[in-house]
């Protein structure tokens, strides 16, 4: 009789140390089965762009540009590939799946690159998230938090294909240690570093998003998920901002960034601009979902938000309803966990669950890509002040929470070759 093994209630914790290639190998070896499962999934027809289109963009655009602008990232990806027994192109595909799911123009052969129901990719075209930061004046403990309900294809949760990735770079690199919540094989989706900086992110879609063309050297482009990792490798908050400004991309995204020093901001970015969304100075918190909110963006007539309507229009307000009465120094992790478990609009709620019987009327509306088996695949609270991470597998209403402590340099003084911090010109990963 075959024995059916129940999936574990917690995600795998992967710890990788050393220079880029070596830590990549450690990642790939420890999570090899999950990495290969993710590669196989995203190569399935209809999940992203066509395999031919993806291979052309990966080989001719992404890899050369990553090599030029983020060489340590490419080394780490090669290590993951070798450790997991897949190709470098496969690992680049995993790190670019956000971008490759948003190709909305014909390729060089004038063939459409979108696939799936209603012309959209079935599961990964535009999944949703809710992120927030809370500064010390808002919390009962006086700690700074950056948190997120990460909503994606429920496959990641059910098939156990997410990992908690802890990275400790070699001291010669002059980089902080990192804790990341990510799909196996990726350099990171959200995370925090030992300097007390946290980043969570939200999908955004604008009419500026475009498909990069092979042979177009006018502007380099990188997969935008690499920006989140590069933000966490920055030496200080000013370098974070400079990295975002200079990062070359072809799709939109929101980054919710906070620091233990007591500051936070959302960067709503398109391929050409960076919009800064600040909290009310008296509130000391900010919440973001999946549509543009900056008035400068909304006032433009030459570009528009492609968000087609859905839970993003109420998730942000719903979380705010839960926490606002407690915003003056009364917010606790228990309150946040309870608010992140809200089910208004179930199953497409703040705490998202797979829809067992999708509404065929809404599911057939033009431009509505969300009627699929989506779920909150992880709920995470980064305590930036204490360098602690509290995270659960799956929806927070029923997930098993774990707390991790991130050890590592809280200053980069004394690191780098010769015991000196690398200058901007010596830091090859600075775009």
From TrEMBL:
<feature type="domain" description="Peptidase C45 hydrolase">
    <location>
        <begin position="140"/>
        <end position="347"/>
    </location>
</feature>
<protein>
    <submittedName>
        <fullName>Peptidase C45 acyl-coenzyme A:6-aminopenicillanic acid acyl-transferase</fullName>
    </submittedName>
</protein>
<dbReference type="Pfam" id="PF03417">
    <property type="entry name" value="AAT"/>
</dbReference>
<dbReference type="GO" id="GO:0016740">
    <property type="term" value="F:transferase activity"/>
</dbReference>
<dbReference type="InterPro" id="IPR047801">
    <property type="entry name" value="Peptidase_C45"/>
</dbReference>
<dbReference type="InterPro" id="IPR047794">
    <property type="entry name" value="C45_proenzyme-like"/>
</dbReference>
<dbReference type="InterPro" id="IPR005079">
    <property type="entry name" value="Peptidase_C45_hydrolase"/>
</dbReference>
